């Protein structure tokens, strides 16, 4: 079997790329190792930047997003019992963000793909990618008990950090830069209406806390916890009491409590693999970069990658020019490192490092005070959070 673009990974990056290529008349095949039910239930990001929403609209995949997504024009920072709102509309050139869970994005893209898109195979486990430096790389995979070979003009790896595609880039060419943080997040879903209209990011001597949401009826909340934490050690009452303490603010604001339906621990790390292209193999999304979730950048970076890549592939197909493909890695990495820096800034400003001193804490407070008093500092945060425009 042969296709123009073989896409490994049926998460949001792979599915969005397939949708954009299909609408441009470029044939592709998507291979996803898990079954459909698993893919549609993976709990991941929930904040979409303006550019991501625009890309989903361009792909014809925003009908439910536009009907059900929650539009947010800012976030709230809390520290020392104070609260300060960052207004995106005035500080980020009118850009805003949407609360719409990655699970819903994936469901929407899968439904479109199966209805009228390119082939999408679930349970297709890729075992190797060969010939990256040739004009016809080959993807080896197993599906329904058969060994299959798929030859491609291009292979795009959207299969995550532990996927096969990264290893198609030779070790002497591949460079990976990483940072592991000394804390994790305990994340919960609760059947209770959110206690806020916009996300709350809280700095506290007890550790970081984040109040987010999935819908007007479901709250999503996070607590900073030590690495290696067992979620079973956190019963419901302990979680709500700790959230109450970390969100404490002057005034009559009150945290609503409700049944916790799921809990999990999320390690925090940063990672960037360079280059994002080797020969006819290209990396996108988590296969190339990982950010801590504090800056809400993971899904949005993946979407930016595939929008840039789709434009490059369309240009190559229609004009024969490979200039955008040749620039793909450098174009994406400029945005990736900007997002890595912003995510690092948000993470280290708001979290309490187990080893930090009182001096370190005072520096964090000083930075938060500056954001609250300096229009320039507030604008930089707002513009990065709402998402930089695509090139």
Distance from N terminus to C terminus (CA atoms, Å) equals 35 Å
The main sheet comes to: 8 strands, mixed
Number of helices: 11
Strand content: 25-35%
Order of helices and strands: EHEHEHHEEEHEHEEEEEEEEHEEEEHHHH
Question: Which structural class do the helices and strands define?
Answer: alpha+beta
- Strand segment tally: 19
Q: Which geometry do the CA atoms define?
A: globular
Residue runs with pLDDT of under 50 for 5 or more positions: none
Relative helix content: 25-40%
Query: Measured on Cα atoms, how large is the radius of gyration?
Result: 21 Å
Arithmetic mean pLDDT: 96
Describe the structure.
It is a single chain. The protein is of the alpha+beta class and 391 residues long. 36% of the residues lie in helices and 29% in strands. It contains eleven helices and 19 strands. It has helices spanning 12-23, 36-41, 50-58, 63-68, 88-91, 102-116, 236-246, 298-319, 323-350, 358-373, 375-386; strands spanning 2-8, 28-32, 47-49, 70-72, 74-79, 82-87, 97-99, 120-122, 125-130, 138-143, 146-157, 175-190, 200-202, 209-213, 219-225, 260-274, 277-278, 281-283, 289-290. Strand 13 and strand 14 form a beta hairpin. Helix 8 (298-319) runs antiparallel to helix 9.
Topology (elements, then pairings):
Blueprint: E1 2-8, H1 12-23, E2 28-32, H2 36-41, E3 47-49, H3 50-58, H4 63-68, E4 70-72, E5 74-79, E6 82-87, H5 88-91, E7 97-99, H6 102-116, E8 120-122, E9 125-130, E10 138-143, E11 146-157, E12 175-190, E13 200-202, E14 209-213, E15 219-225, H7 236-246, E16 260-274, E17 277-278, E18 281-283, E19 289-290, H8 298-319, H9 323-350, H10 358-373, H11 375-386
Parallel strand pairs: 1-2, 1-11, 2-8, 5-13, 11-18
Antiparallel strand pairs: 3-7, 4-7, 5-6, 9-10, 10-11, 12-15, 12-16, 13-14, 14-15, 16-19, 17-18
């Amino acid at each position: 079997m042969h296709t123009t673009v073989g896409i490994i990974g049926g998460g949001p990056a792979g599915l969005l790329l397939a949708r954009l290529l299909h609408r441009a008349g470029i044939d592709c095949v998507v291979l996803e190792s898990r079954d459909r039910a698993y893919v549609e239930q993976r709990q991941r990001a929930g904040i979409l930047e303006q550019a991501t929403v625009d890309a989903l609209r361009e792909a014809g995949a925003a009908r439910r997003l536009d009907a059900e997504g929650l539009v947010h024009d800012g976030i709230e920072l809390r520290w020392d019992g104070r609260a300060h709102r960052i207004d995106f509309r005035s500080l980020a050139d009118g850009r805003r963000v949407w609360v719409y869970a990655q699970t819903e994005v994936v469901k929407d893209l899968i439904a479109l793909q199966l209805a009228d898109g390119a082939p999408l195979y679930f349970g297709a486990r890729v075992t190797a990618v060969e010939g990256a430096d040739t004009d016809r790389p080959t993807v080896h995979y197993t599906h329904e008990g058969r060994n299959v070979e798929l030859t491609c003009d291009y292979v795009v790896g959207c299969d995550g950090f532990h996927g096969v595609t990264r290893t198609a880039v030779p070790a002497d060419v591949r460079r990976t830069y990483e940072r592991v943080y000394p804390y994790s997040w305990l994340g919960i879903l609760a059947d209770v209406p959110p206690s806020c209209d916009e996300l709350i990011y809280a700095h506290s001597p007890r550790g970081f806390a984040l109040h987010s949401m999935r819908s007007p009826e479901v709250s999503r909340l996070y607590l900073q916890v030590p690495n290696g934490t067992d979620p079973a050690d956190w019963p419901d009452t302990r979680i709500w009491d700790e959230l109450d303490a970390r969100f404490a603010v002057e005034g009559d604001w009150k945290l609503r409590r409700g049944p916790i339906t799921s809990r999990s621990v999320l390690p925090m790390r940063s990672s960037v693999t360079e280059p994002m292209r080797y020969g006819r193999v290209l990396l996108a999304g988590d296969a190339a970069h990982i950010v801590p979730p504090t800056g809400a950048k993971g899904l949005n970076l993946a979407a930016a990658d595939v929008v840039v890549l789709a434009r490059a592939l369309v240009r190559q197909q229609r004009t024969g020019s490979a200039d955008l493909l040749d620039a793909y890695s450098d174009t994406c990495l400029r945005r990736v490192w900007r997002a890595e820096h912003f995510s690092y800034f948000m993470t280290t400003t708001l979290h309490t490092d187990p080893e930090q001193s009182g001096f370190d804490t005072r520096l964090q407070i000083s930075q938060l005070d500056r954001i609250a008093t300096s229009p320039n500092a507030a604008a930089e945060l707002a513009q990065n959070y709402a998402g930089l425009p695509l090139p």
